[in-house]
Amino acid sequence: MNIRLAVFLLLAFSGTCRAFDLQSFDAAAVRAGGRELSIPVSAPERVRERGGDVCAGYPLTMRLKSRTVTLPASGKWTLESHLATRDDSFGGRAFPRGVRENISAHLAGSFSLLSRNVRGADFASVYDTRWAKEWTPPENGKAGQGSVGNLKPSKEEEMWVFNMMWVGKSMPKAGTKFLATYNGRSVVVVGGYERGPSSSRFLGGFQREVLWYLGAAEDSSRVTLSALKDQSLRPGPVNCR
């Protein structure tokens, strides 16, 4: 009798633990910006067994150019070109000479990381515009350079970078993580490396990998940004359930 009870309890406990196993899903068609897109769903972040919501946030007020925003907040986002990373090479220089120097190697490395985590990722659909295949232009600096001097993100961070037109101390420390949510998908994004855009039409800007994974259309989809309590989460797609 005791043996049967022990087996029953063991099986029951095993069943409850499956929610914390890493899962993967096939591509799913979703609507974004009024058009049908085929967006693969990522394997979610492995969730440790702990209390509370892994994606829990908190109210955060930030000063932007000409306005103040309190997160969580939703708005339109523009597409941002790429930032040079600590892993990119430019012949001994910290940054490229122009917006296309060694960009192919950068995109190949980013896509390699992306395709390991997102089943069905297709290079042509991810990097589908000119701006998604260039370094950020040299505005008051160098091509590929953000707003924090020579400080550069890692390759993994850069894929999920976002920026806003922060003013003064409202700009987060480089590497601070936030949560972007749209269409039932969530991504841990990284802030503090770049400022912009200046246009008040946009809440901010995302790297192409972020918009692609969320299934969000540039300039029209209203993506929600939240402050993130758990800074230990890795950048990229996350399962918040």
Helix content: 10-25%
Radius of gyration from the CA trace?
20 Å
- For the secondary structure, the number of strands is 11
User: How many helices?
Assistant: 5
What is the typical, i.e. mean, pLDDT? Answer: 83
Order of H and E elements: HEEEEEHHHEEEEHEE
Strand content: 15-25%
Quaternary status: single chain
Instruction: State the major sheet.
Output: 7 strands, mixed
**Category from helices, strands and their pairing:** alpha+beta
Descriptive account of the structure:
The protein has 241 residues and is of the alpha+beta class. It has one domain (22-237). It is built from five helices and eleven strands. The longest helix is centred in the N-terminal third of the chain and has 16 residues, at 2-17. The radius of gyration is 20 Å and the shape is globular. It starts with a helix and ends with a strand.
